[in-house]
Design brief:
six-stranded mixed β-sheet; copper ion binding; signal; 5 helices; oxidoreductase
Length: 568
Amino acid sequence: MASRGGFGSSTSRNGHLSLFVFGFVLLVCYRAEAATKKYQFDVQVNNVSRLCHAKPIVTINGRFPGPTIYAREGDRVIINVSNHAQYNMSIHWHGLKQYANGWADGPAYITQCPIQTGSSYAYDFNVTGQRGTLWWHAHILWLRATVYGAIVILPPQQTAYPFPKPDNEQVWVFGEWWHGDVEEIVKQGNAMGLPPNMSDAHTINGKPGPLFPCSEKHTFAMEVEAGKRYLLRIANAALNDELFFAIAGHNMTVVEIDAVYTKPFTTSAILIAPGQTTNVLVHANSAPGRYFMAVRPFQDVPIPIDNKTATAILQYKGVPDTVLPSLPQLPSPNDTAFALSYNNKLRSLNSRNFPANVPLKVDRNLFLTIGLGKSVCPSCINGTRLSASLNNITFVMPQTGLLQAHYSNMKGVFTLDFPDKPPRPFNYTGAPLTANLFTSHGTRLSKITFNSTVELVIQDTNLLSVESHPFHLHGYNFFVVGTGIGNFDPAKDPSKYNLVDPPERNTVGVPTGGWSAIRFRADNPGVWFFHCHLELHTGWGLKTAFVVEDGPGKNQAVRPPPKDLPPC
């Protein structure tokens, strides 16, 4: 009996051990494939010195720029934001789709009310079907002038990049810097009815570079080894400027935009609009030395901008700091031809593993016109205030989160009567117009049926002035199927669409005096913000939101709100 018992006990132990090992392996594999990444973001005010003097700025964890979020495709990410600053705060995880989880999207008064001083809120989301470079930023007031950082989403374990593996990589975030308090500058501009003062410098990873005074120590440098390849993860966090970027003595190979792989192409410079990200490969194959990397704005209309050049240094290992760097040949500030040519080269990879699922049939056609104008303002300098509109509607921000109002069926917060086309057609890009064309104000949204396919044409106009506009759609990627200069022609232009491998993005640059056509499938229920990513224009009302209805399936409805959702 003892023998049988002992034999039986040994067999049982071996069976339990096998089950334990098998379970442990499964658990390890599961954790490797889908970990939970936790971050603590403390919103605080710190003194930071740039351009010969210090000033207090709002930061995350005392860092400028803020920390980079690292995750892997499939991970769950929890970021607890504790607000110790004097401003209310919300943070947007730009480009993350947040399936049925708009509560984690972040734009103030759209998907949440802001986090009040002394309070906290945990953004809890899954990274599903995305990999690459995105970014995060404050989404209230102009606080993203200093509250921003990168998001790096790595592919699943054992999954290779669809391009040559880099030997190393570096995050590059472009921004702007003001001498004064940005919020006070904005208030002064609004009180006068004028644009606020432009920035005093551009920055690369928070540093303007040695072409600015007192900036020798405020210069970002990247060391490279001859013969190696480097992946640069680039985000444009500037508030109001599209930027050219180039590296002296080196070409770049574009391999990704807005966290979507592209067909690789080589270029001497890139163009990146506010809100966009771009990954490039750089081969350190030039003569060992020190080379400036530079950013400068692109603006092809006579509008005042901060046209100064920010620089960083690409330095080969072993080369002394005494070697003077050479400057790159950037495109001219108004080089429209380069801008259009560069954007035309962007194509989705459209491979078996990374297909471009472009909607070929369209259920809903939307046509939105961009308008700049003036509103009556008796207290302003000229008796008017600058404003902006989509389809002649200047968006009015609510005081309650739109997603909360939609989810709880609150009345009186918004209406669902945003028009699918402008109320009065005109020659959109003809002679300059100064009339507002009966612009109205309101919190008017557009309702979209779940899983329907949408084509949205965004048309620039010459109301006050033509200008390029980067438009960002929250909660979605979309395909840029067409773009052109002049007025969109619905009879002719769709025949020129690229429906095979168009670039897939979350932020599209509408060209000056032109149009862009995008398509997407409305498979993400909730309330999703759509706005110009020039902070100046967003503040003037160049924005709206889409209410995507719940679907019939199990996971096709907006999730219940989290218990710590900030109150209004």
